[in-house]
Amino acid sequence: MSAKKVKKPIQGSRRDGTDAVSQLRKSDRTRQSILDGALEFLWTHPFRDLTIKELMLIAGISRSAFYQYFSDVHELMEALLRSLEEDIFVVASRWLEGEGDPVRLLEETMSGLVSVCYKRGPILRAVADAAPMDERLEKSWKAFLQDFDDAVTARIEQHQAAGLIKPFEARPVAIALNRMDAYLLIHQFGRRPRGNRESVKDAILRLWISTLYGEEKVATSASGRRAKRTKTSSSKNS
Amino acid sequence: MSAKKVKKPIQGSRRDGTDAVSQLRKSDRTRQSILDGALEFLWTHPFRDLTIKELMLIAGISRSAFYQYFSDVHELMEALLRSLEEDIFVVASRWLEGEGDPVRLLEETMSGLVSVCYKRGPILRAVADAAPMDERLEKSWKAFLQDFDDAVTARIEQHQAAGLIKPFEARPVAIALNRMDAYLLIHQFGRRPRGNRESVKDAILRLWISTLYGEEKVATSASGRRAKRTKTSSSKNS
DNA sequence: CTTGTTTTCTGACGCCGTGTCAGCAAGAAC
DNA sequence: GTTCTTGCTGACACGGCGTCAGAAAACAAG
């Protein structure tokens, strides 16, 4: 069923992982080249045009070799999603778990979020597009979003208890903010040419701050100070 | 290319449209039975399982007859979307264009919105799922959402000018609220068994009111009065 | 370098859903 | 009934998917 295979580590002496790339098994490099090819393709094409044939043409290997590494194109997307997930949760943890001025933490998190999505944006877009077509991927994607909803909800409630955020039902607000983020990030960075990092960050940040900590706090954030009157041009065509 | 055909109206005297169903051309009834079959299917199955063969089996006609009416499954979805669109804009116009107490208007609109989606929910879900797979449908879906974003943005700005809503950047808030609505409606009513109408309406309404008109106005709405402390159970598993 | 073993890759195959087409059947008008 | 139009059908070719047996390459040991 699954294409995964438990690989016995090669028993010889040389493959001890000390010399990075060149010392990896062939299969690991091939697998990576498929993942790279997919991302490359998705920078300029919608997911619906990603056929295995096309993909393996980019990777320079025969079509059937694909199935040595992934059981289908959706499993590949899942792999890409997982790799993005790691990066995102790292930057998100700043606001979700950090200590200190919450507005500052939020700014750091959103800044990082924008950076990650700017660099690997198509993954988000393609996974969102592909999810409805495959039950497994759909579940992963839903879980990914829900993890975020849960974390944000918890953090809001925590800050409400601390008097930093006014009391209201946290979850629907968390969902609204997260869906908004997803929508903006996907549309601004999901394909080349990409939108402007700063304006996207400012737009997202402003909405979060004003929703959670109050309109007056918006001005205290760095971007608020820097570009208080900037109309986020990029949000026009979104 | 397109399956559409300009049909000359039958020249005889009887088909004057006075006697509803039985007086329609055969082709119109068949077309409708396909649309009905699709909706029926989508109540219990995800869009990805909707194959033409399956669909025409339900409709009781041969597979190839499908192409007399639609060029492909996405054009069918577009037809369903258009029919839903009409209903939705009717109820939405209440808040978007009505006069009087805005909170009351909003309540009427959300109430209607919930009703429409409760009755024809799978359309929303299926179109959202199918959109990434087809360029044309993707455009229609995007346009549908954007029409809403535009209308809501305009209405917010109008109410801001009238001093009913505090000043803030209207568009991102409009987008966030709309995406939240879409998410909730799709997940609660997109398939059987459906969520609870009242709790969904209350959840949506509360968020809109508190975001636009202020937390204190929530209590003045009918549902706010009726169920001030109800935890919207349905938003748990969303 | 040669040999034997394991890993990786390939071409050919069958499957399934799509969309088209020529021609058959059913319905309407007379 | 006959004629003409409209609606329907089965058969076909196409393209992408996933599998498999066996070829080729990578690797370790001698």
UniProtKB/TrEMBL annotation, chains A, B:
Domain HTH tetR-type intervals: 28-88
Q: Which UniProt keywords apply?
A: DNA-binding, Transcription, Transcription regulation
Regions recorded as binding DNA: 51-70
Enumerate the GO terms in the molecular function aspect. DNA binding
Segments of this protein annotated with the region Disordered: 1-23
Q: Does the keyword Disulfide bond apply?
A: no
UniProt key word Transcription: yes
The protein here is known as TetR family transcriptional regulator
- What species was this sequence derived from? Rhodopirellula sallentina SM41
